[in-house]
Design goal:
single chain; 395 residues; alpha/beta; Rossmann fold; 2 domains; six-stranded mixed β-sheet; 11 helices; 27% helix; binds zinc ion
């Protein structure tokens, strides 16, 4: 059980969901031993998991968490546009930053959780006058990052004690890092201390309101709402300039500044109608995904006699979660369907990943493992939505 909220320190967050499964899913769509428990703080509208979802957190990041083995491009690919051209996450983050922050020609930037330095390389093209630094959880990233930053500007940090190569930065970026942290309040306070006068923090996290599946990933310990992210930033002594749920589907985008006039706030009593509204929405969203297994079961039992094979559309976290939720029926999944160029032709959870064009003719039932906000558009674009012989399960 969790003793206190990771964001506002309010004791005894409510237990929202205790999975009956003995396996959990990671953000890399791998299955792992563990029992997931999701908690909710009604004081700051924050959902969080305890470490029970991962049986060995340090071992996971030390040895297994390796977006490294795939190419940098595979890790960075967000989507394909209408012409089938790749859209990269790092480019979206950079374009948003250019619009939001009026950055000068010179400065010093740190990408905290820089991975292989993909964002820093793009940033350098846009702002060639800036000095670059990066850090991440493993030495294995250094050979990728230092060619971008120059020698000595990559640092290894840990999940419980944040370290950076230097301080006094004009900009610190943190893309999809805060949800992994064991102590997000302490880490963010340290990150804030590395900012120079009027330095900026630019941060993204999954939005638990619009990307609720995030709460079911074992290595994501914090599941932020816009309210809990704002509370976290205030606690670190930063002043939010932009806090948006709309720049990108499923994520919260934050731009905050170091401001000497803002003092680090102790945990305070929050609450109020707005928090209560968010709390209710999180509760309903988590319950819906928690019941997914039962609904998949009902869908499969209602298959007409003589129906053909079962496919899962989406080999990412949504599709993997449906496969996990299907329980024993997972054995009847014939294949995954996905348009991702780095996935097609590989195997996932023991099943082949096929382009939708190559869907076997005997498939009649499809579990739709896509963000519900985009699922129908993607199926329509793949030419499947109007196929009269297909039955779809939407989570
Ligand atoms: Zn809280």
């Amino acid at each position: 059980m969790l003793a206190a909220c990771r964001v506002c320190a309010r004791p005894e967050p409510e237990l929202l969901h205790a999975s009956t499964l003995e396996q959990t899913l990671t953000s890399e769509s791998k299955l792992r031993r563990g029992r997931l428990r999701i908690h909710l703080c009604a004081n700051c509208a924050h959902a969080m998991s305890d470490a029970g979802g991962l049986d060995d957190v340090a071992g996971y990041y030390g040895a297994e968490y390796d977006s490294l083995l795939e190419s940098a491009e595979a890790d960075d690919l967000y989507d394909l546009d209408a012409q089938g051209q790749p859209i990269y996450r790092s480019q979206i983050q950079l374009d948003t930053l250019v619009r939001l922050a009026n950055l000068p020609a010179k400065g010093r930037v740190l990408d905290f959780g820089c991975g292989k330095g993909t964002f820093l390389a793009r940033f350098q093209q846009q702002y060639p006058g800036w000095e670059l630094a990066g850090c991440d959880v493993s030495e294995r990233y250094r050979p990728f990052v230092e060619p971008v930053t120059g020698p000595g500007r990559f640092g290894v940090t840990s999940l419980d004690r944040a370290e950076a190569p230097g301080a006094g930065f004009d900009l610190v970026t943190m893309f999809f890092v805060a949800e992994h942290l064991v102590e997000p309040a302490a880490t963010l306070a340290r990150v804030a201390s590395w900012l120079g006068p009027s330095g900026l923090l630019y941060l993204t996290v999954p939005n638990v309101m619009t990307n609720t599946i995030d709460a079911f990933l074992a290595d994501h310990l914090s599941h932020f709402s816009a309210l809990s992210l704002a509370a976290l930033v205030h606690r670190a002594g930063l002043r939010p300039l932009v806090l948006s749920e709309h720049h990108q589907l499923g994520q919260i985008t934050l731009l905050a500044t170091a401001d000497p006039a803002v003092t680090r706030r102790p945990a305070t009593r929050l609450g109020g109608d707005l928090v209560a509204g968010y709390v209710e929405a999180i509760r309903a969203g988590v319950a819906r995904w928690a019941e997914c297994g039962a609904r998949v079961d009902t869908f499969l039992k209602a298959r007409p006699r003589g129906h053909g094979a079962l496919a899962v559309y989406g080999a990412g976290v949504f599709g993997s979660y449906l496969a996990l939720s299907a329980g024993a029926a997972r054995e009847s999944i014939a294949c995954f369907l996905d348009q991702g160029p780095f996935k097609i032709g590989k195997h996932h959870l023991g099943r082949p990943i096929l382009h939708p064009r190559e869907m076997p003719a005997d498939v009649t039932d499809v579990l739709v493992g896509l963000n519900p906000g985009r699922a129908r558009d993607i199926l329509a674009q793949a030419g499947l939505l109007d196929c009269p012989h297909l039955r779809f399960f939407f989570p």
